[in-house]
Design brief:
There is one protein chain. The protein is mainly β. It has a domain of 92 residues: Immunoglobulins (Immunoglobulin-like), CATH 2.60.40.10.
Length: 148
């Protein structure tokens, strides 16, 4: 945008100002420059885009597993993740039996993120739902955990 001028009080060595950004469809780097007389300083500000991603699904490499065994979970999104990655919230309907991390990150350019679940032994067969959430987009998958 156009240059803005900031007036500082005599004798002060700093001045504070607010930067307001506008919604972006792609990440940009903005340069902020301050000049007084022959002195100049600058810095950059990374402005990240607001990405409208949808979660397509939550799948397990095995739909049914014996309690105490590991299973791989894959979360799929509808478009490649941005340069900064895409953080997805996770939740388990039974975190004692099927513990999941609070979040996973889909890396730059990828459409999937995977993680390992270390299931607990169970005294009876259980169905546990793992839910992935990004803003208003929600998807889930059900893992059957069997008694040995």
């Amino acid at each position: 945008g156009p240059a803005k001028y900031l007036e500082r009080n005599a004798g002060h060595t700093t001045a504070t100002f607010t930067v307001t950004t506008a919604p972006r469809t792609s990440d940009v780097v903005a340069t902020i420059r301050a000049t007084t007389g022959t002195l100049s300083a600058q810095t950059t500000l990374n402005v990240l885009a607001e990405y409208p991603f949808d979660i397509l699904g939550v799948q397990f490499d095995q739909p049914s597993v014996m309690g105490g065994m590991n299973v791989t979970c894959t979360v799929t999104i509808d478009a490649p993740a941005p340069p900064s990655g895409l953080v997805i919230q996770l939740e388990s309907s039974n975190s004692r039996v099927v513990p999941v991390p609070a979040t996973i990150t889909v890396l730059n350019g990828k459409v999937v993120a995977t993680f390992t679940i270390n299931t607990a032994k169970v005294s009876r067969d259980l169905s546990v739902r793992v839910t992935a959430r990004y803003k208003d987009s929600v998807a889930s998958g059900v893992l059957q955990v069997r008694r040995r």
